[in-house]
Write a structure and sequence with these properties.
- Two copies of one chain form a homodimer.
- By secondary structure, chain A is mainly α.
- In chain A, helix 5 packs antiparallel against helix 7.
- The interface between A and B is large, with 44 and 43 residues.
């Protein structure tokens, strides 16, 4: 049988998915570099040599594109929490694994976009979806803290304050981390997390 | 001598300063609530029952208004560092005092605006001024960390990573702290800072 030059359903689906991801990546990088408001979908389209209607076709309006970007980043964070919770070891070891992955996501394109996006940039419906996903991450982080306290590997802490403190410290690399800086992303993430865990008073 | 109904120079100066501050406060609150891009100076003017040219008169263009807002917040942070450095006690006690004030500023109008403002929102000249002031705060924080390590009240840490970790943790309340929440601003700030200092591993 000769190979058909016409794509089958699976090939069409894969091609569509690859195109969608390329558009999403071009958009998130431009949002991060220029700011959401200063970026037009025309610019994103031009950077890929396509037209704005093509972007609408794959992702929708500019608000929907931003929602897709932050959703992608928030899913990376949720996956990191699930992976960490399946690890063996103490509760604190699992929390540490999650926090390191959390920091690393925030140093990358989609995580940076999550941190740089204020709810006021999104439409009310998209902002609600954004808030819901952030609440899921917060709940996952609090559960990991609770488990670490429960098995005695972590001192008792106020779960809410600890979650906000850790998250804030590890959100901020979205603004300052420079991949060309003195330390790798992994080393920087471990360094920050170990400081949070150990504190800084002499023992 | 009858009291003159005409203001003298000092009164004119004080009145001008009070008006300037009122405009700045109205602007920063609207930027924080709606986002910078969604706020027009017409809205700010309307909220004070004045005209847009009056705002131009006191503060300048929208870019200059935002720069004034973040400068005000950054000066509050710099003053907090100077006050903390004049305190008696160990280096760690001084660092703790600064970090608590730092968190508190970020829970208030101008500090919130500093944290919510990305450099890409400002004109290139204003962004440079913003960056310079942020560098001053970072330098002040690093100096306090260095002094705490030098007098042995703090374990040796990487000054750069520690400064970014502490700052990130205490910047984030600009996004989540709710003055109507379960804990006061002061208690929340102390709670976070003591967690950062003590860490969370059992001793």
């Amino acid at each position: 049988m000769p190979v058909s030059p016409f794509p089958d359903d699976a090939q069409r689906q894969a091609s569509r998915e690859a195109k969608r991801k390329a558009v999403l990546l071009a958009a998130v990088r431009m949002f991060n570099a220029r700011g959401f408001h200063a970026t037009s979908l025309d610019d994103v389209a031009a950077s890929l040599g396509i037209s704005k209607p093509t972007i609408y076709h794959y992702l929708g309006t500019k608000d929907q594109v931003l929602l897709e970007c932050v959703t992608f980043g928030l899913h990376q964070l949720l996956e990191a929490a699930e992976t960490a919770r399946r690890q063996p070891g103490t509760g604190l070891a699992r929390l540490r694994t999650f926090l390191i992955s959390y920091a690393r996501v925030n140093m990358e394109d989609f995580g940076r976009c999550v941190i740089r996006t204020g709810e006021e940039m999104l439409s009310p419906e998209s902002a609600e979806r954004f808030r819901d996903l952030k609440r899921e991450i917060d709940a996952a982080l609090r559960a990991l803290i609770r488990e670490a306290v429960a098995d005695g590997s972590m001192v008792p802490v106020d779960e809410r304050i600890a979650a906000f403190t850790f998250a804030g410290a590890l959100n901020w690399p979205a603004r300052w981390f420079d991949p060309d800086g003195p330390e790798s992303a992994q080393a920087t993430a471990e360094h920050m997390v170990d400081l949070l865990i150990a504190g800084c008073t002499p023992r």
